[in-house]
Amino acid sequence: MQYDHILIRYGEMSLKGKNRKHFVAKLYENVKSKLQSFPDIKIKRNRDRMYILLNGEDPQPIMDQIKDVFGIQSFSLAVKVNSTEEEIKAGALFALTKPENVKTFKVSVRRVNKNFPINSQDMNRVIGGHLLRNTEGYQVDVHQPDMEIMVEIRRDGTYITSEKIKGAGGLPVGTTGKSLLLLSGGIDSPVAGYLTMKRGVEIEAIHFHSPPYTSERSKQKVLELAQKLTRFGNKVRVHIVPFTKLQQSLYRQIPEEYGMTVMRRLMLRISEHVAEREDILSFTTGESLGQVASQTMESMNAINEVTNYPIIRPLVAMDKLDIIELSKKIDTYEISIRPYEDCCTVFVPSQPKTRPTREKINELEAKVDFTQELEETLENIETLEFREEHSEQENEFSDLL
Ligand SMILES: Nc1ncnc2c1ncn2[C@@H]1O[C@H](COP(=O)(O)OP(=O)(O)OP(=O)(O)O)[C@@H](O)[C@H]1O
Fold first, then answer.
1. Helices (H), 305-370
2. Which HAMAP family would you find in this protein's record (predicted)?
3. Has the ipTM of the complex gone over 0.90?
């Protein structure tokens, strides 16, 4: 006997009533896309479970991939047997004898197929008795067992598992709409993107760069960060905004200490154009209260005035150290800490206003006209698309097609 399936348990989506079908379909699509470099496996789904039939594939690399798919609460290696008492007993024995250092166990039967003649409670006892009779040194502990043997009796067969591996949680990407992530080359915005994706949101990114003040290397860094995020959502488009002319014009016409605020407002105005064009209903930023001058309450208030699009700020209440920890977890940290020039930092005034007011900013903006530069900027936005890279095996395979 050997493990021949991976059983996937859905996350929060099971609470979502009517939308469930849509959520399951999206999760299925995402899992399928994630596992496209394993052509021999088969994926099946029903209302409350998904099953990957391994067809002889090594399960470990598949499980490593599944760990990144949002919407999965947990998953387990499973052995599938016919739903007869004898086969179920044999399967349970197989699941129990695999790991060492297990001294106590508990059996949990879920009888989904009510036509199975023995009820769950009785089946727990039948299997438990069988395991005790056929092994040595184990005891039953229903409260704190070292191992739980989980048995799901279904119409198409019975799945037996012994170890639950925690999934990524969250909701399947693509089930809760799309957001435009303002992506800099720093530590915070990729983490903000990751957390938003975790809530089921598909991400497109927008990046403002100001060559020659910001280098090609800085842009490359942002593109690499976008590529990293594809791990959680398969595809990420990036809109690169040439920001130099607007910034130069801005710093000629706006008093230096207010430049930062006006620039942020311009970023949002441009973002709104892109969002409208791409059918995107919100923005996501890596802002966190109190970190820098642009992130005081007054600044946020003044910046936010120019848009009534919702701005998702997943980091707003997080500590920097926790953000850094997350960026290490999602593997963006090493890229983010490479030296780079951000368009915000090269033009940053020595003394930015930390408490700008809307009135003052509106008064200053009323005296200038950025229309022409804005139009030119919007016309020259470049859009790139990144997709998750799969193994070489897959690339070779696609070359043959
Ligand atoms: N060049 C840029 N292109 C796109 N978005 C940007 C750019 N610069 C800043 N942002 C957005 O504004 C947010 C705040 O930027 P700021 O530089 O004030 O803070 P930060 O904490 O250093 O953020 P990060 O670590 O993401 O750069 C960023 O998280 C990002 O969402």
1. 320-329, 333-336, 343-346, 358-366
2. ThiI
3. yes
Q: Specify the 3-state DSSP secondary structure of 373.
A: helix
pLDDT digits 0-9 by tens, 273-306: 999 999 999 999 999 887 666 678 888 899 999 9
Residues 6+ apart with CB under 8 A from 1: 79, 90, 91, 94
pTM of the predicted structure, to 2 decimals: 0.92
* CB of 291 sitting under 6 A from ligand 1: yes
Q: List C-alpha distances in Å: 199 to 137, 175, 307, 377.
A: 45, 9, 23, 32
The answer to whether the CB of 11 is under 6 A from ligand 1 is: no
Shortest-distance Cα residue to atom 27 of ligand 1: 186
Query: Which domains are seen in the chain, by residue range?
Result: 5-166 (3.30.2130.30), 178-387 (3.40.50.620)
From residue 108, how far is each of 52, 101, 153, 161 by CA, in Å? 22, 20, 11, 10
Extract the tokens encoding 293: 């001058």
* Contact present, 138 and 107 (Cβ < 8 Å): no
Residue pair 52/43 in contact by the 8 Å Cβ criterion: yes
| 356-370 tens-digit pLDDT | 899 999 999 999 999
Q: Which atom of ligand 1 is nearest to the CA of 205?
A: 4
Question: Is the minimum distance from the CB of 207 to ligand 1 under 6 angstroms?
Answer: yes
Within 8 A by CB and 6+ apart from 12, the residues are 71, 73, 169, 170, 171
Q: In terms of pLDDT, which residue wins out, 214 or 309?
A: 309
Q: 294: Cβ below 6 Å to ligand 1?
A: yes
- The vertex-267 CA angle with 374 and 243, nearest 5°, equals 55
Q: pLDDT tens digit string along 16-37? A: 667 888 899 999 999 999 999 9
Helix %, strand %, coil % of the chain (to 5):
45, 20, 35
**Would the CB of 342 count as within 6 Å of ligand 1?**
yes
Q: Six-digit token pair at 106?
A: 């508990």
79 touches 91 (CB < 8 A): yes
